[in-house]
């Protein structure tokens, strides 16, 4: 007979004694269990003791997490978190350097546990640590030369403990003094600093900037971009990642009026070329966190264009009108005519003719074309950049189109405005960066004016595609759709340079796009005749069952999910998988991302499928309602889902990508007997149905299928032709 579900069999260790095997009743209060264990070893004052997991985490067992104890677990009887916190609080103030170092090492390790962290914080432990950072370390400055390794380790453990304690979100970041910020900044500003100390210092500065507006202002006064640049020129990728994260945080929190000023400083310090040579083109493989930080930097850089994108042109502003005059002058090689050259009407007529050749919608006053936002003045900026930096190509496009028939000309002005708007949509100019996306494009780090260069390539592509399509003015929107498809397909190949991007576009001519579309259309062809539709309806349940089994098999393999917190690089991983009998979800925390499947036995938690009440997605998830920053982020919202079970408890997920999101939401809905409605299911159903239909119809190739079934022939007059086998 199996043991009751509330009884777990464990081994409990106590230093200097043989381990005990005992059964723990999960219904009994934890204090009673600890008292029973203490009595077994004749230990008094059981309230001073606690149980810990005897694994690498050494986390305390509490009433909240005691359900994580599994049969066969090894536990450790140890001092209570209150007592341990008091002891460490005293030990880190020891006058002995060796004792202090050992105490700080223990504190750094223990601070990962929120139970201990709460007790240490209650003793005003964070204030003690900040005081030690501000002034305590100065006592050891004289000893630093002769005890440099010891000093570096001590400071490293001190800052590690601080970071771990703050990561629990118990204490507000707004409580720290300027002296503490100056001290942390000084560790970053020093040219030779212990790697661990530098890493922790950068992490603290990033968290300060992201979590407090007041601290942002104080940190911005202490840290300059010039002081951060040298850390990018080293070989340690973690230090480089933390450095870019601090730059991103300063960029993100800077007031709008200061962002352009900061961007100019970054350009002066050649940040882009330093990142290109030391990070993107280094011989090391790039980790996902570095890719994410480069993506964030890319987004924030492009977001600087938002102001121009949302600025309407003032038709009465002479300085802005002069830009349009400059476009006309470059295109037609016309110098400004003196005021007395011809009548006003004649000059107006000449301007109108030239503006028409330039492809503006409003020939009389082209400034009106730039009152549409987006793209506003950004389109005019791009046109001027193209005209000045690629003058030959600009003149060729304008003159080439002005010599065509009116209906066949590709209007440069209108095309530039619509193309700029499209590029802003593709690059999501003005949107906040995603919390998880690692999708950066190396080619945008090649050039200081990457958006303008991107535009120059794309406007020439548009003109080329227009000619290939032999388009007329009525085909304008069709041409723009083809151009967008060409750009997106080229970007998806992740070209390393703008030249590579250009060559990818050369291979994506209009003819090639038609071939790709035709191929995709054939793969997704949907026959509309009634017999085919009937066959489709007959096959569909089989295909849906196949998709369902695939989803459940994927759930059985499991997926590694990331726990997102305010300090993303310190996030933990957790794994979830379905049992082979489809009755239980096993899940638990991991120290790092696994290289393969994780065994059921190593996952501490389990959730019976029978207890699941519902699956909710997006903004209905509790973890999306709690996190304000995530709530605003569309990409994270699209990857979030939660399982509701028992009495309004939730298991919250953020899928690593859209594919895993579809797999898990489909699989969970299948377990609950609900319909699978994800985009992936629709795509898989269309693909598999199309393939199955084509396989079944192979024998009918080139045979016309009638709309109605053929008539049943009349019965024969006799059956003499029938052979009786009996």
From TrEMBL:
<dbReference type="InterPro" id="IPR006816">
    <property type="entry name" value="ELMO_dom"/>
</dbReference>
<dbReference type="GO" id="GO:0007015">
    <property type="term" value="P:actin filament organization"/>
</dbReference>
<dbReference type="GO" id="GO:0006909">
    <property type="term" value="P:phagocytosis"/>
</dbReference>
<feature type="domain" description="ELMO">
    <location>
        <begin position="319"/>
        <end position="491"/>
    </location>
</feature>
<dbReference type="GO" id="GO:0017124">
    <property type="term" value="F:SH3 domain binding"/>
</dbReference>
<dbReference type="GO" id="GO:0005737">
    <property type="term" value="C:cytoplasm"/>
</dbReference>
<dbReference type="GO" id="GO:0006915">
    <property type="term" value="P:apoptotic process"/>
</dbReference>
<keyword id="KW-0472">Membrane</keyword>
<dbReference type="InterPro" id="IPR011989">
    <property type="entry name" value="ARM-like"/>
</dbReference>
<keyword id="KW-0597">Phosphoprotein</keyword>
<dbReference type="Pfam" id="PF11841">
    <property type="entry name" value="ELMO_ARM"/>
</dbReference>
<dbReference type="Pfam" id="PF04727">
    <property type="entry name" value="ELMO_CED12"/>
</dbReference>
<dbReference type="GO" id="GO:0005886">
    <property type="term" value="C:plasma membrane"/>
</dbReference>
<comment type="function">
    <text>Involved in cytoskeletal rearrangements required for phagocytosis of apoptotic cells and cell motility. Acts in association with DOCK1 and CRK. Was initially proposed to be required in complex with DOCK1 to activate Rac Rho small GTPases. May enhance the guanine nucleotide exchange factor (GEF) activity of DOCK1.</text>
</comment>
<dbReference type="InterPro" id="IPR016024">
    <property type="entry name" value="ARM-type_fold"/>
</dbReference>
<dbReference type="Pfam" id="PF16457">
    <property type="entry name" value="PH_12"/>
</dbReference>
<keyword id="KW-0963">Cytoplasm</keyword>
<dbReference type="InterPro" id="IPR050868">
    <property type="entry name" value="ELMO_domain-containing"/>
</dbReference>
<dbReference type="GO" id="GO:0048870">
    <property type="term" value="P:cell motility"/>
</dbReference>
<keyword id="KW-0581">Phagocytosis</keyword>
<keyword id="KW-0729">SH3-binding</keyword>
<dbReference type="InterPro" id="IPR011993">
    <property type="entry name" value="PH-like_dom_sf"/>
</dbReference>
<protein>
    <submittedName>
        <fullName>Engulfment and cell motility protein 1-like isoform X2</fullName>
    </submittedName>
</protein>
<dbReference type="GO" id="GO:0032045">
    <property type="term" value="C:guanyl-nucleotide exchange factor complex"/>
</dbReference>
<dbReference type="InterPro" id="IPR001849">
    <property type="entry name" value="PH_domain"/>
</dbReference>
<dbReference type="InterPro" id="IPR024574">
    <property type="entry name" value="ELMO_ARM"/>
</dbReference>
<keyword id="KW-0053">Apoptosis</keyword>
